[in-house]
């Protein structure tokens, strides 16, 4: 938990990535109690499991991609295993076609009690959405909580050295450990927004990927231990793929 707190600022930055797509015909219903909408055509894209699929390599090679920052370029930083590149996210009740673009903007918060600050900020943002968004023209997405893996007890491996040496995801669809407290804050804040907002509920699928962090293949090399960010190629590609599918499906 202490490690979670010390890294939570970074995480709040990630959490505050808010996606707004303009000029779009949105068809979610306006019911205030059902405005956390992440099902399309009866399929929850965030519920599922990771399946190893060697025939489905990442769509780019980080080694040769000029846009990937050093701390995420695990292969370049010497990570010797490759298995983690070959897991595909399989939603329980549908397929997830591959994606080809993303669109994000970002926002940063100040240093105070982080959960309190976070909930206040979300309240401010929600009020802005309710005042300014026309749901017939604009789709609003909120990116959920990206979790870390510092405590092996969370995934029933108490002797694990944080996320170091993890080479496989947690099997199945259920993470045995606790969810980050920020998840409850997000769900509470979004439930108060009257306009339709789609939560990109990436927490569970990311919790399953204890193997997806840079660990000692991040910016500090062997002297660091990064179990917060994600190797690229990696888990964030799946977040983007899901976002892409939600957008496409809404357009149909
Ligand atoms: C990425 O490219 C490098 C350099 O061309 C190559 O050595 C490496 O095997 C490639 N990695 C993957 C996962 O294809
Ligand atoms: C990991 O979690 C377990 C169970 O919650 C706890 O007893 C332990 O102190 C934690 N370890 C660290 C290093 O925080």
Automatic annotation (TrEMBL):
Pfam families: PC-Esterase
Transmembrane parts of this sequence: none
Domain of life: Eukaryota
Sequence ranges assigned to domain Trichome birefringence-like C-terminal in this UniProt record: 89-245
GO-annotated molecular function: O-acetyltransferase activity
A single Gene Ontology CC term: membrane
Keywords in alphabetical order: Signal
Signal sequence segment: 1-30
InterPro entries named among the record's database cross-references: TBL, TBL_C
Cited PANTHER family: PROTEIN TRICHOME BIREFRINGENCE-LIKE 41, PROTEIN TRICHOME BIREFRINGENCE-LIKE 9-RELATED
Family, similarity comment: Belongs to the PC-esterase family. TBL subfamily.
Name of this protein: Trichome birefringence-like C-terminal domain-containing protein
Lineage: Eukaryota, Viridiplantae, Streptophyta, Embryophyta, Tracheophyta
């Amino acid at each position: 938990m202490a490690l979670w707190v010390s890294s939570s600022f970074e995480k709040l930055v990630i959490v505050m990535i808010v996606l707004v797509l303009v000029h779009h015909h949105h068809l979610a219903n306006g019911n205030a109690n059902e405005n956390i909408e992440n099902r399309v055509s009866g399929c929850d894209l965030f519920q599922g499991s990771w399946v190893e699929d060697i025939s489905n390599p990442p769509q780019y090679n980080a080694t040769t991609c000029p846009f990937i920052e050093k701390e995420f370029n695990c292969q370049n930083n010497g990570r010797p295993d490759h298995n983690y590149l070959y897991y595909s996210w399989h939603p329980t009740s549908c397929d997830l076609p591959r994606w080809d673009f993303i669109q994000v903007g970002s926002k940063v918060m100040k240093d105070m009690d982080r959960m309190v600050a976070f909930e206040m900020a979300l309240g401010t943002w929600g009020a802005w959405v309710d005042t300014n968004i026309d749901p017939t023209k604009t789709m609003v997405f909120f990116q959920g909580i990206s979790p870390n893996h510092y405590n092996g007890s969370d995934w029933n491996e108490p002797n694990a050295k944080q996320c170091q040496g993890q080479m496989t995801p947690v099997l199945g669809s259920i993470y045995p450990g606790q969810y980050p407290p920020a998840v409850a804050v997000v769900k509470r804040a979004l439930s108060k927004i009257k306009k339709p907002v789609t939560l990109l509920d990436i927490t569970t699928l990311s919790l399953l990927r204890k193997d997806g962090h840079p660990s000692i293949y991040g910016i500090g090399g062997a002297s660091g231990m990064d179990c917060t960010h994600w190797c690229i190629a990696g888990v964030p590609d799946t977040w983007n793929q899901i976002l892409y599918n939600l957008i496409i499906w809404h357009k149909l």
